[in-house]
Design goal:
- The chain is built from 17 helices and 5 strands.
- By secondary structure, the chain is mainly α.
- A 5-stranded antiparallel sheet has the order 1-5-4-3-2.
- Strand 2 and strand 3 (about 30-35) form a beta hairpin.
């Protein structure tokens, strides 16, 4: 039996309430009940946002700390509420009508008539001002609600190279992300040469060729040709998975600053393979490959996160990070590793560490991994950088490194949540291509909306790692 779906640009008030009171939680691209883990909503980037949402967030990596020193920008699916002036009255109200914001029932024609009357009547001006003031208040409230929604979903600080739904991670998007990762690795070559490390970028060309093969495959008219070419692309994606698994393992072992690049590339390889199976409507195989890939990727991301936590994670709670990194943020990192842990448990883990790093900062500095800092990156005097130089640079980088951990965890959660979309296809009795076409049928997209919400008529019991 087909389960009805509601597809909308507005998150239902009962879901917002559940997120606020802790009944629901966002995990990657889904909102689920905390207790039962049943799915109540899928989040999907809007088409206009799918190609740009990760391009800025892809700058969220350690290489940029070395070469540009720029702060990492949390973009993800960030929804910013904008308020424009009222100079162009008819344009402003026309925009409101097109956006279908709230219950604002204003007619551009009526407004023009009111403005015309206002030229004759001073009372007319007062009427116009009153109407505009009321509209402005409603717009402000709507903007605040949009910001509230994003804040509750914790999307304003969530960055990932993956979009929220597998449905918007088509081959063109995968290709763009792959190009960004390749460029980031090219930036790393200068630093790696200083420590006598070489990287082989030739495999990225093979990966890109596989994506082009997949794109061509699914534009073919003959079914047999489409399937044959798709299977060829799948074989190349399988090869890429083996290559980048090995590369990631080597870089994690080396405590390297490019381990995250290979982990993200590995995620894209599994995603591209599974996407081929979905295009062929081979749902069971696609789900199995996502499940297998999730195990491979999560275990390595966890090793990488453990590495970035350093020998003393209390380093992230130093006084200089007040207002930047708090215990709540650190707890979320630990809860990804162990969902049963709470803030009090994390504090107990760090109680002694706080004293250790205050009394013996040198020990922590000596153990800091190359993934965060190497001596060759820090300028110093004739005899190289001093311990104070190293500590200053390390402290400068830690807030950005923390964002890297959050970004990797967000990527992992989005990858894992893709499984539920495939499970939903079977549960709902639709095809993948029908799932792709889901969109609000009667709503006009508000200007500030970057998400689509897919809400089943009843919570769905779908398997997702805890």
């Amino acid at each position: 039996m087909t389960i009805p779906l509601t597809v909308t640009f507005t998150l239902a008030s009962w879901i917002l309430k559940g997120l606020q009171d802790g009944t629901f939680e966002r995990v990657g691209g889904v909102i689920r009940e905390v207790g039962s883990k049943h799915i109540v909503t899928w989040l999907r980037d809007t088409p206009s946002n799918s190609l740009v949402s990760a391009s800025s967030s892809s700058s969220n990596n350690l290489l940029n700390l070395v070469f540009s020193g720029a702060n990492l920008v949390a973009s993800g699916a960030n929804t910013a509420s904008t308020r424009q002036g009222l100079a162009d009255v008819s344009g402003r109200l026309g925009g409101i009508e097109q956006s279908s914001l709230g219950n604002i029932a204003v007619s551009g024609v009526n407004l023009i008539g009111t403005v015309a009357n206002a030229a004759i009547s001073g009372k007319g001006f007062a009427d116009v001002n009153g109407r505009l003031g009321g509209i402005e208040n409603q717009l402000e409230e709507i903007g605040e609600n949009l910001q509230l929604t994003q804040g509750i979903l914790q999307l304003t600080t969530a960055t990932s190279i993956l979009n929220l739904g597998v449905s918007v991670m088509g081959f063109a998007v995968i290709s763009q992300r792959l190009n960004e990762l390749e460029q980031r690795l090219k930036q790393a070559e200068e630093l790696l040469n200083k420590v006598n490390r070489k990287i082989d970028l030739s495999f990225y060309a093979n990966f890109r060729a596989a994506i082009e093969l997949a794109i061509n495959a699914f534009t073919m008219n003959k079914v047999e040709n489409r399937r044959s070419s798709a299977l060829q692309a799948i074989n190349r994606f399988l090869e890429a998975e083996h290559i980048y698994t090995e590369f990631a393992d080597i870089e994690i072992e080396q405590k390297s600053q490019i381990a995250d690049e290979y982990l993200l590339t590995l995620s894209l390889a599994y995603l591209a393979e599974a996407r081929c199976y979905l295009e062929l409507e081979e749902h069971d195989t696609a789900l199995r490959r996502f499940q297998e890939g999730a195990k491979v990727i999560r275990s390595r991301i966890q090793k990488y996160v453990d590495l970035l936590l350093t020998s003393n994670p209390a380093a992230y709670l130093q006084p200089e990070f007040t207002g930047i990194i708090d215990l709540r943020r650190l707890t979320r990192i630990y809860q990804w590793i162990d969902p049963a842990i709470d803030e009090n448990a994390v504090f107990e883990l760090q109680r002694k560490n706080l004293f250790k790093i205050a009394k013996e900062p040198q020990k922590w500095l000596d153990s800091i991994p190359a993934a965060i800092l190497t001596r060759v990156e820090v300028q110093g005097g004739w005899f190289g950088p001093s311990q104070d130089d190293l500590k200053l640079e390390a402290d400068k980088r830690l807030p950005q490194v923390f964002e890297v951990m959050e970004s990797m965890i967000e990527t992992n959660r989005r990858f894992e949540s893709y499984q539920t979309e495939i499970q939903a296809i079977s549960k709902l009795g639709i095809s993948f291509h029908e799932w792709l076409k889901l969109s609000p049928s009667t709503e006009i997209k508000p200007d500030d909306s970057e998400l689509i919400y897919i809400i089943p008529s009843q919570p769905l019991n779908l398997q997702l790692p805890s």
